[in-house]
């Protein structure tokens, strides 16, 4: 999955499974446009208030990884 502010689907609409890869861009430029165009069906977003450019990268990773682990019932975490 590719994470971008331009994604059409919300990260919570995805069914995560073992082996799901998450690709985040850097904080200043995000993911390359050609990559987002090539994999447009895999681009998802984190909802944000209008007018905000983006979230901090580490916060974005934490949000999405936590959702993926939650759906997988926190494997390996006791």
Give the key terms.
4-stranded parallel sheet, alpha/beta, 78 residues, 12% strand, 2 helices
N-C termini distance? 27 Å
Low-confidence stretches: none
Structural Rg:
13 Å
Number of helices: 2
Largest sheet: 4 strands, parallel
What is the oligomeric state here? single chain
What percent of the residues sit in helical stretches (DSSP H or I)? 25-40%
Number of strands: 4
What is the element string, with H for helices and E for strands? EEEHEH
Measured by DSSP, the beta-strand proportion falls in 5-15%
Shape annotation:
globular
Structural class: alpha/beta
Biggest β-sheet: strands ordered side by side in the sheet = 2-4-1-3
Describe it.
The longest helix is centred in the C-terminal third of the chain and has 15 residues. With 78 residues, this protein is α/β, with parallel strands linked by helices. The N and C termini lie far apart (27 Å). It is globular and about 35 Å long. It contains two helices and four strands. The model has no long low-confidence stretch (mean pLDDT 94). Strands 2-4-1-3 form a four-stranded parallel sheet, covered by helices on one side.
């Amino acid at each position: 999955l590719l994470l971008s502010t331009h994604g059409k689907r919300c990260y919570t609409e995805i069914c995560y499974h073992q082996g799901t890869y998450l690709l985040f861009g850097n904080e200043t430029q995000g993911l390359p446009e050609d990559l987002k165009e090539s994999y447009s069906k895999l681009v998802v977003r984190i909802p944000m208030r209008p007018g905000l450019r983006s979230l901090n990268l580490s916060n974005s990773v934490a949000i999405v990884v936590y959702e993926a682990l939650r759906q997988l019932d926190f494997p390996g975490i006791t």
